[in-house]
Amino acid sequence: xxxxxxxxxxxxxxxxxxxxxxxxxxxxxxxxxxxxxxxxxxxxxxxxxxxxxxxxxxxxxxxxxxxxxxxxxxxxxxxxxxxxxxxxxxxxxxxxxxxxxxxxxxxxxxxxxxxxxxxxxxxxxxxxxxxx
Length: 132
Description:
A two-stranded antiparallel ribbon has the order 1-2. It is mostly helical. Helix 2 (43-66) crosses helix 4. The radius of gyration is 15 Å and the shape is globular. It has helices spanning 8-29, 43-66, 71-93, 112-131, and strands spanning 33-36, 96-98, 104-105, 110-111. The mean pLDDT is 93.
């Protein structure tokens, strides 16, 4: 396996695949949200969210590489932690709200699909990068 930083094609592939995968996720689960900043959840909002997700996944993979850590572990664990922090902040500040159909994680009181998103899409993207 080549390191991401030494092979720009792998770097680009990870980012693009994570972007597409997260855009699909954002689009399909957007029905579980009432609003974004009090307004409509538009295709631009979804694309921007997917772009941030792809950047986070790429940053976690590069961090793992830099410190010679297991990429899957860093991407999954980091993705879960970052997603939980984002959800707690966004709900507290009213950035978005869930519909009644959003499954909620007890104790944390955040949506299940958004906290799983970065971990799952990051894991899939990183694993695909590893075998490609």
